[in-house]
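Hi F.,

I've been meaning to write this up properly since the lab meeting, where we talked about keeping a consistent format for the predictions we share between groups. The idea is simple: the sequence comes first, exactly as it goes in, then the structure tokens exactly as they come out, then a line or two of notes. No screenshots and no reformatting. I'm using this chain as the first example so we have something concrete to point to.
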Amino acid sequence: MGDLKKELHQLCVNHVRKIMEAAELAIADAQRASTDDTKSSAGDKYETGREMMQQETNRNMAQLNEANKLLVALNRINTTGVSMHAESGSVIITNNGNFYLAISAGVLTLNGKTFFAVSPASPIGNLLNGKKAGDEFALNGKRYKIESVV
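Output, unedited:
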């Protein structure tokens, strides 16, 4: 099971790195477009274009900062060892799905199995946190029974 945690962790890291790469590429494109844009006779049009590019850069910088925070959170997770209760880094197997309690990274597929990467701060993460095998909880009218926590 230690390998499972490490592999899920790596899938989350890859997810965050893709976000970072996309944000960095968009920032570079916006900066390149801004420097390539020459001042036309219609000054307002030029200023509006530059402002739009600056807003796009700011949005992507914010996305890059958020991705960096996710990477820091991932780096704090211990991928070795087994815990008796769900905590950051735990893999939780339930009757209604498998969860990796780390960051919100959506659906991860590993060895033909589906795992939902969820943040401990998310609604389902809050419900999972501290639970152990045999515990039950409900979310959105659906009952979950925890089969195992690794």
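Notes:
The beta strands are 91-94, 97-101, 106-110, 113-118, 136-139, 142-149.
The helical segments are 2-36, 43-75, 123-128.

If this format works for you, I'll send the rest the same way.

G.
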